[in-house]
Amino acid sequence: MSFWPYYGLKQGIQTTPWPDGEDLSPGLSPGRPLSAPVTAPEATAALCPVGALQARAEGVHVAFDRCIHCQRCRQGEHALPWQEDFAWTVAAANNQGPLGGRFYESLNVLYVDAGACGACVNEVRLIDAPAYNLHRLGIFVTATPRDADVLLVAGPITDAMRTAIRKAYAAMPEPKRVVGMGVCAVNGGIFGESFACAGGLEKIVPVDWWIPGCPPPPLAILQGLLRVVGRAVPQMTEEGTP
Ligand code: SF4
Ligand code: SF4
Questions:
Q1: Which of residues 15 and 12 earns the better pLDDT score?
Q2: Which of 76, 97, 103, 196 has the most other CB atoms within 10 Å of its CB?
Q3: Is residue 145 part of a domain?
């Protein structure tokens, strides 16, 4: 017997039990910094290269929708506390609410890369890997907007992709929802707004949900998609909410 079949049989089923059970595998998520009272707020805020930390009288506030997970604020004397979660999805201003029960077993997702750096698409790829197995949750990936219930977009929306996203959105049947994943989709991230990119998905189409992170890990993406259909999943605590 060759090595890989033997290895697979020996390991058994390795798909995560989440969301029905807790996934205790190490390295599931880079986690996130938490707003906290610190002795030197200015010094802690100065650690952040993208302005995600704001010094306030009561301590440091984390704007998680800007955080690129560089982890500079995780170590040293001015470090912030970290939370190892991945329930990061938050409702956007134009949120229309969950799609509801008839999508519980069949949610079709169209993923569009709108100038992402490559890391976001890698995480999207992983939700189809055996460890995460999106199909067990009734989630499927489609290549056409005509079949899509959800438009999932990563990247800062480069000029070349503006029209493509508008057309894809227009071609989707109702009811439909839009999810922006990664801080680039939220506000341009490290690319920002420029002559070359819109600096955020909301400038192109109405958005229902944001999944911040840089990139958000696979379980954060699945948590977001389950929120789109309205399934009960853990949600981000108030602290650190974008
Ligand atoms: S981990 Fe996030 S909040 Fe902390 S310094 Fe890096 S980008 Fe800023
Ligand atoms: S959010 Fe981060 S990982 Fe995703 S495309 Fe932007 S820079 Fe890359």
A1: 15
A2: 103
A3: yes
216 C-alpha vs ligand 2 centroid, how far in Å? 9
pLDDT digits (tens, 9 = 90+) for 218-237: 999 999 999 999 998 887 76
Q: How many domains does the chain have?
A: 2
Say if residues 207 and 157 touch (Cβ distance below 8 Å).
no
Is the CB of residue 72 below 6 angstroms from any atom belonging to ligand 1?
A: yes
Residues with a CB atom less than 6 Å from ligand 2 = 116-117, 119-120, 154-155, 182-184, 189-190, 214-215
| Closest ligand (CA of 46) | 1
Is residue 83 within 8 Å of residue 34, measured between CB atoms?
yes
48 lines ligand 1 (CB under 6 A): yes
Structural domain harbouring 47: 32-83
Q: What is the mean pLDDT of the chain?
A: 93
Rounded distance from Cα 68 to ligand 1 centre (Å) = 6
Q: Which residue has the higher pLDDT, 155 or 2?
A: 155
**Ligand closest in space to the Cα of 213:** 2
